[in-house]
């Protein structure tokens, strides 16, 4: 049975499965990070180094991870809601069934990450990096939110759906564009970046 723990100070090592932490201060972990079945509501994380951590079935709402380092981490069935993820580094991480909703994620880094059923909803992804990411079926969906300047260089886009996102400019490798799902307005942006002039008939 889920337990609510409120306004406590505890280390990430002390966090227990099937509990909800509200308004808590989470201090630095001294062990390998393994968090499962936990909900964090408006908690403050003192730690910024989460490298190699394992997060399973977690919900994190209203927390700040500015420029936090999640390099090589694993996230399964997790959800970020209303979080500050600006500059957070998830290079070479694995995301499966992960949703990021209503977050600020400018400069988010998912370079060389493996993404399977990853979804961004109403999240700001301006200048974010998906360079050389491996995106596997059912892929990556960005619905709502601004992602101008997002970088998909060296990433196959066949399993990517950006049709409900907003952007004026994307960085991508033309040879890997095939299969990208976009709307008609975005198609004009993509065509323009490929040097195509769209004119009235």
Automatic annotation (TrEMBL):
Keywords: Repeat. Pfam families: Pentapeptide (PF00805), Pentapeptide_4 (PF13599). Coiled coil: none annotated. InterPro entries: 5peptide_repeat (IPR001646). This is Quinolone resistance protein. It comes from Lacticaseibacillus camelliae DSM 22697 = JCM 13995.
């Amino acid at each position: 049975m889920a337990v609510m723990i409120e306004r406590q100070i505890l280390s990430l090592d002390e966090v227990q499965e099937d509990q909800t932490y509200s308004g808590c201060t989470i201090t630095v972990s001294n062990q390998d990070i393994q968090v499962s079945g936990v909900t964090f509501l408006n908690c403050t994380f003192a730690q910024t180094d989460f490298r190699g951590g394992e997060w399973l079935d977690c919900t994190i709402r209203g927390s700040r991870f500015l420029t936090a380092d999640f390099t090589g981490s694993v996230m399964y069935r997790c959800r970020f809601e209303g979080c500050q993820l600006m500059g957070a580094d998830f290079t070479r991480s694995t995301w499966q069934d992960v949703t990021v909703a209503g977050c600020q994620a400018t400069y988010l880094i998912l370079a060389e990450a493996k993404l399977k059923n990853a979804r961004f909803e109403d999240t700001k992804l301006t200048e974010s990096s998906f360079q050389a990411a491996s995106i596997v079926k059912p892929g990556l969906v960005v619905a709502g939110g601004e992602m101008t300047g997002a970088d998909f260089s060296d990433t196959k886009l066949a399993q990517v759906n950006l049709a409900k996102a907003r952007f004026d400019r994307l960085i991508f490798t033309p040879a890997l564009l095939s299969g990208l799902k976009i709307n008609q307005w975005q198609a004009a942006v993509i065509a323009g970046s490929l040097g195509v002039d769209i004119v009235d008939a």
